[in-house]
Amino acid sequence: MNRFFRKLERFFVNLLLITLIVIISFQIIMRDESTYQHIKKLEYTVKGLLNTGNTVEVTSIKEMERKAYLTIDLLHDYSLPQVYLVQNGLRVADFSDGVVKIEVNSGDLISIDATLLKKTLWFEITSLSASISNLKPGQQFRVSGDIKSLGVIEFYNKI
């Protein structure tokens, strides 16, 4: 009987030493960021295989692009097809009708290009989506033969 307990004791001591070596090795490996990411993927894969209850598997999360609109009016009674509304560096519309309505996303840079016309012009934001935080209806801009930046479109953050 005494011999059995010695073997059992030796087994548990060996098991404890092996477990301690594995834990220390694992901690050293986890310091590397790329290895950490691979182990995290493996962990989620194993959790997904073991958890077969009434769960929904998410394969990818894609942030929805929120869209809004912006309407800018030329405060003169004539049309100016040589004056452009620029969105992210691209001319998207001209003021040939005197009014421009465009669709905007958060982070879009909006400007007015009046470099072809060397006189002072006034523009007004007549309407816009309620989600746009940095521009207001009735806000006016003066442009004198150059490119006037109206700013980067920002949306209100959801609480």
Write up this protein:
Keywords: Membrane, Transmembrane, Transmembrane helix. This protein has 159 residues and is an alpha+beta fold. It folds into two domains: 2-50; 67-152, no CATH class. The protein is built from two helices and eight strands. A four-stranded antiparallel beta sheet has the order 4-1-6-7, with no helix packed on it. Strands 3-2-5-8 form a four-stranded antiparallel beta sheet, with no helix packed on it.
Q: Mean pLDDT score, rounded?
A: 83
What is the overall silhouette? rod-shaped
Order of helices and strands: HHEEEEEEEE
Approximately how much beta-strand content do the residues carry? 25-35%
Based on DSSP secondary structure assignment, what is the total number of beta strands? 8
Number of helices, counting only DSSP H or I runs of 4 residues or more? 2
- Beginning-to-end CA distance, first to last residue: 69 Å
The figure for the number of domains is: 2
Structural class: alpha+beta
Low-confidence segments, ≥5 residues, pLDDT <50? 59-65
**Level of helix content?**
25-40%
The gyration radius over C-alpha positions equals: 32 Å
